[in-house]
Prior knowledge:
Elements: H1 28-36, E1 42-43, H2 56-68, H3 73-77, H4 87-100, E2 109-112, H5 115-126, E3 132-136, H6 141-149, E4 153-157, E5 159-160, E6 163-164, H7 166-174, E7 179-184, H8 198-211, E8 214-218, E9 241-245, E10 258-261, H9 264-277, H10 283-293, H11 298-324, E11 328-330, E12 338-343, H12 350-360, E13 362-363, E14 365-366, E15 379-383, H13 389-409
Parallel strand pairs: 1-13, 3-4, 3-7, 7-8, 8-9
Antiparallel strand pairs: 2-10, 5-6, 9-10, 11-12, 12-15, 14-15
Helix pairs in contact: 2-10, 4-10, 5-6, 5-9, 7-8, 11-13, 12-13
Amino acid sequence: MSAAQQTPAPRDIEGLLARRTGWGRSDAVSRILAAAAAPGVLSMAGGIPAPDSFPVARLAEATDRLFTGPDGAAVRALQYAPTDGIGPMREVIAARASATGAPVGPDRVMVTAGSQQGLDLVAQTIIDEGDEVALDDPSYLGAVQVFRRAGARLLPVPGDAEGMRTDVLEQRLLAGARPKLVYVVPHFHNPTGAVLSEERRRHLAALAERFGFLVVEDDPYGDLAFEGSRLPSTDVHSGRVVRLMSLSKTVCPGLRVAGLVAPAELIGELVAAKQCGDLQTNTFGQYLLADLLGDPEFLPAHLAGLRTLYGGRARAMETLLRERLPWLDFERPRGGLFFWCRLTDPRVGSDALYAHALAQGVAIVPGTPFCIEEDGSRVLRLSFASLDGAQRREGVSRLAAAWEKALADGP
């Protein structure tokens, strides 16, 4: 048999994988959340909204209107839709964006299958292998995974209670760093809870204009302030901002409908990237949410209810943590869904506490998965959103028992 006729040895399936499949891969959070979903486990792990916060009755009414309405509304809701989204949904997103930032029209809006898809589309469209991306350290793990999978080199920037240290970012830019984009969570940052101050928003915008990078503002928690009003988007100071506008925490996550607002020069490329991926976002969900959010009375009342609900749960959790877990140090959350806690006793680290907590039937998230260069071994994140009063008390009791067991077992 000639060499040309010889059949090459088959490669293992793993040998066919693209290199990028390993760049952003991390099973840390998936393992944690899978463990949290086990029977009998009380979860303080995921950023899961309270089931009793979902506007079930209003969505049911919108569904009835859709299926019984005139002019073929039901058929339109079950049919394909434009890649950038149906007109009414883009109009709703544009109105909300304009109310919380710079004025924008529907032509600069795309409806995405959750804001995570929006972030991934931005990364696919902007980042080439080896490009720099600046972001908070610690940061939202989903963003870290997206940027790494896109081949980015991460430029971690420290933060404090006022969000990203833009003075440190400026120093690194002056020293030669050239990120293509800077990623921020401006309100009630995941995991730290920080709010990017107005002064730093202005500074970040000025740096974007000076050095030519894009600001990606991922803002799922902006409407969940327990007191006071939200700050306007960074886009009031610069036209180099992409806004990711999740509805998962304020309406419900299961419909997978979110908004993306981008500069006019970029929106067409993002739509083209989405078309390659999934053609369009769920048509039915878009019509439901356009109906719901198009009611001018719905959102203000609904958001007021969410702030009351989550503010009350945060205060109740704070009381329990301070009474039962004196080895935790934390700032009172001003909004959002999380406590970011530091262990004050050096005898137990957050990874060990996580393991003992699971054994006691309560799930938490240790700090390491969120950290890029920062040390995550002494910090952890607790969610207060989805547990009711009895579950919250039992969860804290189990965490106290886990601490005692960890101390007894030693390092």
